[in-house]
Amino acid sequence: MGAGPVGSAARGLRRFFAGRGMRIVVAAVGRLKSGPERELAARYSERAAAIGRSIGLRTVDVVECEEARARRPEDRIEQEAARLAAAIPENAAIVALDARGEALSSTQLAGRLQTWRDRGTPAAVFLIGGADGLAGRLRERAELRLAFGAATWPHQLVRIMLLEQLYRAATILSGHPYHRS
After folding, report:
1. Cα 51 to the chain's mean position, in Å?
2. What confidence tens digit (pLDDT) does each residue in 74-98 have?
3. What rounded mean pLDDT belongs to the chain?
C-alpha cells in the first residue's frame, strides 16, 4: 500500500510530536471498582493515549482522588476540591465537568484540544467532582465548563463518557474514521 499524502503527513506529525505534546489529565473524585466500568475506562484511556501520541497528545493520565468523609456536603466538596487542585499541573488548561456548563460537540471538543496543544499548553486537566459536585472555586478557575447534557449523571459514568470523548477527539484530530458526523 502506498504512503500517499495522508500517510506521509501522519509520519511527519509523528516525527514533529515525538517526545513533545500536551498531557491529558482526568482528575476524578472516587475510585472505579474492578469490573466492566473500570475496564471500559481503561480501554478508552489506552486508546486515546495510543492515537494521541501521533498528534501531540503525550499521555492520558487518570488521577483518582479519595472521596471526603466529612459530615456536611460543603465540607466534603472543599476537601475534595483540595485533592483535585493538587492534580492540576502548572499552566494547564482546566476543564470543569459541570451540568451547568457548555455542551460541546465532539468536533468542538477536538478543536479545543487542538487549540491548547497548538498554543503549547503543557496539560489539559479535566476535573470531575464527587457525588456532591465540584467546588465553585474550581469551576471559576476553569477555562471551560463542560456539560454532557442537562441530565444528572453518576460521576463514575461521567469519567467513562469523558474518556470516550477524549478518544473520539484524538481520532478526529488524526483523521481516523472512528468518528462519523
Report:
1. 14
2. 999 999 999 999 999 999 999 999 9
3. 90
What would the DSSP string read from start to end of the chain? ---HHHHHHHHHHHHHHTT--EEEEEEEES-PPTTHHHHHHHHHHHHHHHHHGGGTEEEEEEEEEPPP--SSHHHHHHHHHHHHHTT--TT-EEEEEEEEEE---HHHHHHHHHHHHHTT-SEEEEEE-BTTB--HHHHHH-SEEE-S-SS---HHHHHHHHHHHHHHHHHHHHT-TT---
From 113, 133, 124, select the one nearest 147 (Cα to Cα): 133
pTM of the model: 0.87
pLDDT at 31 over 70: yes
Domains located in the chain, CATH noted: 12-174 (3.40.1280.10)
